[in-house]
Amino acid sequence: xxxxxxxxxxxxxxxxxxxxxxxxxxxxxxxxxxxxxxxxxxxxxxxxxxxxxxxxxxxxxxxxxxxxxxxxxxxxxxxxxxxxxxxxxxxxxxxxxxxxxxxxxxxxxxxxxxxxxxxxxxxxxxxxxxxxxxxxxxxxxxxxxxxxxxxxxxxxxxxxxxxxxxxxxxxxxxxxxxxxxxxxxxxxxxxxxxxxxxxxxxxxxxxxxxxxxxxxxxxxxxxxxxxxxxxxxxxxxxxxxxxxxxxxxxxxxxxxxxxxxxxxxxxxxxxxxxxxxxxxxxxxxxxxxxxxxxxxxxxxxxxxxxxxxxxxxxxxxxxxxxxxxxxxxxxxxxx
Length: 335
What we know:
This protein is mainly alpha-helical. It has a domain at 1-145: Leucine-rich Repeat Variant (Alpha Horseshoe). It contains 20 helices and no strands. The chain has helices at 3-15, 31-37, 43-65, 71-78, 80-88, 94-107, 118-126, 132-145, 148-158, 164-171, 181-191, 197-210, 218-225, 230-239, 249-258, 264-277, 282-292, 297-312, 318-324, 328-334. The longest helix is centred in the first third of the chain and has 23 residues, at 43-65. The chain is elongated.
């Protein structure tokens, strides 16, 4: 349920776009040629080769799912050391370096990637003088290619680095590394003071995942609900429609205040979350039904989505959901 990862990954993908690259169409060229072209003196050739490498890696994932032999996967792993050497080169184009990191991640796993290259990637990620996008991509993919015992300390360290984009990227991965709950809760509590909303979102997401077994995580969720950034608030209240925050009066009070929030989605999700933790759900169900019946299309959509979350947990929202199905605006959104 790592919502932070879902939020941040598309952002990072847009920042390191390779859509404009022209060059190899994988399948028409030998994969070995792509590797060779990455050493060309022509930057355009290297960019095209890097784009093709990502495409090749993506195709290898598709082939593996279809139980075909992933030839490009094999070649990338055979050349992974030389590819990581390119990633380490600060003089190389950022787009080329970032694309290579993506390709390695898509074509391997901790069992297939030569773990000897992981320290090199970690060094790049920890280097405050290196480019933030290269460092961010490494932070996001290290759990996919590195053994947890190798990458966990480095990601925990870089979650406190100077660059806010890199901090946010690393923070979003900490819940994937098998760290002790006490370590994660202590990190999340401190992270809620970070200036980056992305880091605070990661902290809230981590706390939500731990809150069922560790009630002390509830205080972090409360801080998310009262955060100064609307995006952090939105994530916190949305998570509380899925997770059990127990009988925290602080959280109940914060959710009650959010019923008057200017954003429809936050208001409706607050009502849904209150239904989850309240013995008397009728008051909040009425708020959601009123949202369904509103003249405001945005409010109707927010109420319908919140009701879907409520219904998932067996709450009595069927009549309102049935009515929502007849709303042409909502049906258009669903289509």
